[in-house]
């Protein structure tokens, strides 16, 4: 699905390394994988170093993950966010949903 | 101006992306951020047409792309024969946290407006025509 996801466990927390892109054609598949992880861990951190592209379809995926984590008072964080992706998060207000590490 | 006509459906997003990136490669544009912003605007517009223009049926979308000089810029046009719809007429999406969590729509066109240097809409000869321009 043009996206490789690697899971690193830290107790109740998980780190997910995203390698590839999230657009309208793969967002539903990516969401299924991420949601499965979000239901099992309290806090998720996305390593976005190799996330080359995200569109509004991908942002909706992050939003649903955020809502699942918030339901159980967990947090969603992000690290290694590149400038172009950060601008997409800023313009849409999505910086509010992430803690940046 | 080169033209691609496809059925407006998300399965064809790849074809549209390839068509645009070939035009940009021809002119040697390789700035990552600019290429990403163009891909973003193209996806958001094509997905909107695919989701709403002919709903509940399907129909064609025509994509035209041209690279112009002085200043170097790309002009991309999207034409569809669906319901008349001006995506620029709506107020910008509310990006407060509560609004973000309640609603799904509006972010795509906001990203188009924020990342492109010019965006125009017209309805002419039974077609929606959305034209975006980005300096390269």
Describe this structure in words.
The complex is a heterodimer of chains A (101) and B (136). Chain A has helices at 27-38, 56-71, 83-92; strands at 3-10, 13-22, 43-54, 76-79, 99-100. With 101 residues, chain A is of the alpha/beta class. Chain A has a single domain (3-100), classed as STAS domain (Transcription Regulator spoIIAA, 2-Layer Sandwich). Chain A has a five-stranded mixed beta sheet, with helices on one face. The longest helix of chain A is centred in the middle third of the chain and has 16 residues, at 56-71. The termini of chain A are far apart. Chain B has helices at residues 13-26, 32-53, 97-102, 107-115, and strands at 2-7, 60-68, 73-80, 118-124, 127-135. Chain B has a five-stranded antiparallel beta sheet with strand order 1-2-3-5-4, covered by helices on one side. In chain B, α1 (13-26) runs antiparallel to α2 and α2 packs antiparallel against α4 (107-115). The longest helix of chain B has 22 residues, at 32-53. The mean pLDDT of chain B is 95. The chains are: A alpha/beta (101), B alpha+beta (136).
Give descriptors for this structure.
heterodimer, A: 101 residues, alpha/beta, Transcription Regulator spoIIAA, five-stranded mixed sheet, 38% helix, globular, B: 136 residues, alpha+beta, Heat Shock Protein 90, five-stranded antiparallel sheet, 5 strands, 29% strand
**Number of helical regions of chain A:** 3
* Fold-level CATH name of chain A: Transcription Regulator spoIIAA
CATH architecture of chain B: 2-Layer Sandwich
By oligomeric state, this entry counts as heterodimer
CATH superfamily of chain A: STAS domain
CA radius of gyration of chain B is 15 Å
Helix fraction bin of chain B:
25-40%
- Describe the global form of chain A: globular
Spatial strand arrangement across the major sheet of chain A: 1-2-3-4-5
Secondary-structure arrangement, i.e. CATH architecture of chain A: 2-Layer Sandwich
Please bin the fraction of helical residues of chain A.
25-40%
Order of helices and strands of chain B: EHHEEHHEE
Mean pLDDT of chain A: 96
């Amino acid at each position: 699905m043009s996206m490789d996801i690697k899971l690193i466990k830290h107790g109740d927390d998980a780190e997910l390394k995203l390698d590839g892109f999230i657009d309208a054609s793969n967002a539903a598949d990516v969401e299924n994988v991420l949601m499965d992880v979000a239901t099992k861990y309290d806090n998720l951190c996305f390593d976005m170093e190799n996330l080359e592209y995200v569109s509004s379809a991908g942002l909706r995926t992050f939003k649903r993950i955020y809502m699942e984590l918030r339901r159980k008072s967990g947090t969603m964080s992000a690290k290694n966010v590149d400038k172009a992706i950060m601008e997409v998060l800023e313009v849409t207000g999505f910086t509010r949903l992430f803690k940046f590490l | 101006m080169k033209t691609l006509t496809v059925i407006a459906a998300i399965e064809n997003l790849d074809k549209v992306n390839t068509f645009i990136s070939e035009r940009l490669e021809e002119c040697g544009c390789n700035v990552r951020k600019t290429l990403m912003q163009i891909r973003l605007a193209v996806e958001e517009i094509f997905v909107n047409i695919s989701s709403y223009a002919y709903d509940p049926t399907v129909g064609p979308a025509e994509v035209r792309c041209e690279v112009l000089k002085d200043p170097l810029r790309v002009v991309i046009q999207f034409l569809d024969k669906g319901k008349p719809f001006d995506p620029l007429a709506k107020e910008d999406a509310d990006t407060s946290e509560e609004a973000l969590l309640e609603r799904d729509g509006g972010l795509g066109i906001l990203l188009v407006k924020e990342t492109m240097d010019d965006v125009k809409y017209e309805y002419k000869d039974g077609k929606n025509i959305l034209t975006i321009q980005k300096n390269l």
